[in-house]
Amino acid sequence: MPPLHFKAVIPAAGLGTRFLPATKSVPKEMLPVVDKPAIQYVVEEAVQAGITDVLIIIGRNKNNLSNHFDSVPELESNLLRKGDQEKLAKVQHSSDMADIHFVRQGEPKGLGHAVLRAKAHVGDHPFVVMLGDDLIDERDALLTTMLAEHERTGAAIVALMEVEPSSIHLYGVAVAEATDNPEVVKVTGMVEKPKKEDAPSNLAVIGRYVLPPSIFDILEHTEPGKGGEIQLTDALQEFAKDPDGPGVYGVVFKGRRYDTGDKLDYIKAIVQLAADREDLGPELRPWFKEFAATL
């Protein structure tokens, strides 16, 4: 059997109201994390896992996204003329690293609806959904593990992470059973953003999914759920309960994840990533200690 060829879908149609007024004119996915927009980290993660066909679901006033992944001949010529090969390579990397497509979501009807907009592009093949709020450290394997698990089982695969009970209400939460693999659980149900006392586990769904194309059939008849939106969680719940289907499995991730969907966590992400960089860390880490001593 030949290896599967996956496409990646990145929903990026949200309004980013948590970051107003910055996101009044700049999409939240374009907010810089050190010196790259958040969405570039996500595309690079897909490419690192061997995926080079990427569909970004956008909304109104998101032209900055397509501009970022397009070539800029004037800028490139200027850098070439100056002999600045390092900056030229960085500029060209964002437009050369993958085959990137865009489609509008239209009405903002939720994550499930955004994923459904990818149906024509994805076709009858399994695909990956990657949320731009979650950045996964390039040194820690997650997506490759999920792809391998899908190829082994044919199931829908979600990324899970243990979170504190005080934060559980911010996530979709898995009802899970252990398997022979300590890194993988069988998901028998999902609850969208439960209260702490109602949460079935501490395993939160984070923003990575590997989905079979049959999920589109379920999404087409999924009714609006929490928040009046079409929830991907609801579709996966139905998928998990199908006795004749391959089911849903979760890969429990224990690596480094940076949440850029919240202002405080966004600042922490920048600090953590900058501190680990060879060009910034050696000067930044001592400064942190000096600054912390003044608090």
What does this structure look like?
This protein has 295 residues and is an alpha/beta fold. The chain has a single domain (7-261), classed as Spore Coat Polysaccharide Biosynthesis Protein SpsA, Chain A, CATH 3.90.550.10. Helices cover 35% and strands 23% of the residues. The chain contains eleven helices and 13 strands. Strands 8-11-9-10-12 form a five-stranded mixed beta barrel. Strands 2-3 form a two-stranded antiparallel ribbon. A two-stranded antiparallel ribbon has the order 7-13. A hairpin with a 2-residue loop joins strand 2 and strand 3. Helix 3 runs antiparallel to helix 4. The longest helix is centred in the C-terminal third of the chain and has 14 residues, at 263-276. The chain is globular and about 65 Å long. The N and C termini lie far apart (60 Å). The mean pLDDT is 89. Belongs to the UDPGP type 2 family. It catalyses: alpha-D-glucose 1-phosphate + UTP + H(+) = UDP-alpha-D-glucose + diphosphate. One of its GO terms (biological process) is UDP-alpha-D-glucose metabolic process. This is UTP--glucose-1-phosphate uridylyltransferase. Its EC number is 2.7.7.9.
Question: Features of this protein?
Answer:
295 residues; alpha/beta; Spore Coat Polysaccharide Biosynthesis Protein SpsA, Chain A; two-stranded antiparallel ribbon; 11 helices; globular; transferase; EC 2.7.7.9
- Categorize the overall geometry: globular
The CATH superfamily is known as: Spore Coat Polysaccharide Biosynthesis Protein SpsA, Chain A
Oligomer: single chain
Largest sheet: 5 strands, mixed, barrel
Strand order of the largest sheet: 8-11-9-10-12
- How far apart the termini lie comes to 60 Å
Provide mean pLDDT, rounded. 89
Helical stretch tally:
11
Question: Strand pairing plus helix content: what structural class?
Answer: alpha/beta
- Counted up, domains total 1
> Share of helix among residues?
25-40%
User: Which segments are poorly predicted (pLDDT under 50) over 5 or more consecutive residues?
Assistant: none
**How much of the polypeptide forms β-strand, as a percent range?**
15-25%
* CATH architecture descriptor: Alpha-Beta Complex
